[in-house]
Amino acid sequence: MGKTIPSRMTMSLTERYDERSNQGSGLFRKLSIKKRALAITIVASMFFSCNNNIVFSEFQPVQNKKWDKQTEFVFQFEMKDVSIPYNISLQLRNSRLYPYRNLGIILEESDFSGISILDTIECMLTDSLGKWTGNGITLFQNQFLLKENYHFPDTGAYTMSIRHAMLDDRLTGIEDIGLLIEKAR
Questions:
Q1: SS3 breakdown of the chain: % helix, strand, coil, rounded to 5?
Q2: What is the rounded CA–CA span in Å between residue 167 and residue 66?
Q3: Do residues 147 and 117 lie in contact, with contact meaning Cβ atoms separated by under 8 Å?
Q4: Type and span of the H or E element at 148
Q5: Are residues 58 and 24 part of one domain?
């Protein structure tokens, strides 16, 4: 004899859920758990695919959200391919507590042989009307191009150090300092 299915009136909530999930409609419900996980992974990877142009990317937090004048942020990376040009960018995250429109930066680039190059950069954090630039609502992230289509002179280990060149001994409102190196397009 066939299986007797109780009427909806006498079914418990668990039995109704089991009946609904066993009936299932649509392709997704018919897939096994492993196939569902694979499908979710594939769809997620389409949305979060990585950028193959990025060679180095790192953020470092500012201790206690107060950047001391003598504090230097040091980024070390290995350069393997010097045949192509790179774009090097400074990344900053600042809050509304930062008291100025601009930020002066001293950038020091050192290679494995000990040769150092110093450069001073001015980063504008607000527009002419005082509106914060960058992305964000309370924390603003900016990216400033330091070197465009730059060719590293040789393969090997490099260090880039960043410190502020402002008159204040302690800057408030700068929360993270980052360095981004990507292949020029």
A1: 20, 45, 35
A2: 14
A3: no
A4: strand 139-150
A5: no
Tokens of 47: 């949305």
pLDDT in tens, 148-185: 999 999 999 999 999 999 999 999 999 999 999 999 98
Identify the CA nearest to 158 among candidates 75, 38, 70.
75
Are 42 and 60 in the same domain?
no
Task: List, in order, residues 6 or more apart from 65 with CB less than 8 Å away.
Answer: 95, 97, 172, 173, 174, 175
> Which residue from 153, 149, 101 is spatially nearest to 122, judged by alpha carbons?
101
Q: What is the pLDDT of residues 6-39, one digit of tens each?
A: 555 555 555 555 555 555 445 555 556 655 555 5
> How far is residue 119's CA from residue 106's CA, in Å, rounded to a whole number?
6
Specify the 3-state DSSP secondary structure of 23. Answer: helix
pTM beyond 0.85, yes or no: no
Q: Could you give the CA distance from residue 185 to residue 182 in angstroms, rounded to a whole number? A: 9
Give the residue carrying structure tokens 């192509």: 84
Residue numbers of the domain that contains 29: 13-47
